[in-house]
Amino acid sequence: MSSAAFTKHRSNLIIHLILIAGSVVMVLPFLWMILTSLKTTTEATQIPITILPAEPSLRGYADALRQSPLLHYYGNTMISAFMKTLFPVIFSSMAAFAFARIRFPGRGLCFFLIISVMMVPNPVFYTPQYLMMSKLGLVNTVTALWIASLVSPFATFLLRQFFLGISKELEEAAVLDGCNPFQIFRYIMLPLVKSALVAVVIIQLLWSWNELQWPLIINSSPEKLTLSAGLATLVSMFGTDYPVLMAGAFMAVIPMLVLFFIFQRRFIEGVAFSASKG
């Protein structure tokens, strides 16, 4: 083996070892959650710590379904996640196309203002959003979970990077064929950015599915909470039944795991391409 080949082989080995170590670090909490959900309360809290349950039990899952309206949480979360994905994908894709392909006065300033919103922590918006929901009479409603999140600055930025990478010749040919800007956007541009749209859909779903603070602020009725907020109610100041909590958390994360495994290739393609264009 030549010196160059040996060096390349060693570099690849080091990279793979680092990736394996990182994967183990990320997977361990998930495995610990599953194992804890199968333990008894005594096993989950005893010292020294036990890794494997002595007698695996599904009691935690049964108790989680009995102690909380988990099906209501699922329904509210699905509605909220669907709306927080559908509208940002529609509106952000239109805005991204305009910023990438249409010249108009103040385009750079408007895009800068939209991107600057990404630098502001979400809790800053909670007070004015709550006041708006209160004036509209939407407090303690499922509508309040998603109505304030119709546009995503991140989705606008991500999709704009894709639109910038599309050849101008396609757009010019469409103009010569008599297409207006909306027809160019709908029939020419959108089919070319499918990977980006899938990436945006998955990111929006993950974000809305796991959102905790806003549902707890805007809704107090148990029937109007989402999964993340509902699971938070299982934590008591006097004691927490960790198998029940972990069972509920595992049931809450299953849909997102399935979704990611189905679309992981397009998700990785979208994020990688956007990073290369940025």
UniProtKB/TrEMBL annotation:
Q: Mind listing the UniProt keywords for this protein, alphabetically?
A: Cell membrane, Membrane, Transmembrane, Transmembrane helix, Transport
User: Which InterPro entries has this protein been placed in?
Assistant: MetI-like, MetI-like_sf
Annotated membrane-spanning segments are 12-35, 78-99, 106-124, 144-163, 184-207, 244-263
Q: Does the keyword Transmembrane apply?
A: yes
Record-annotated ABC transmembrane type-1 domain positions: 74-263
Its membrane topology: Multi-pass membrane protein
State where the protein is found.
Cell membrane
Q: Which family does it belong to?
A: Belongs to the binding-protein-dependent transport system permease family.
Name the UniProt record assigns to this protein: Carbohydrate ABC transporter permease
Species name: Paenibacillus terreus
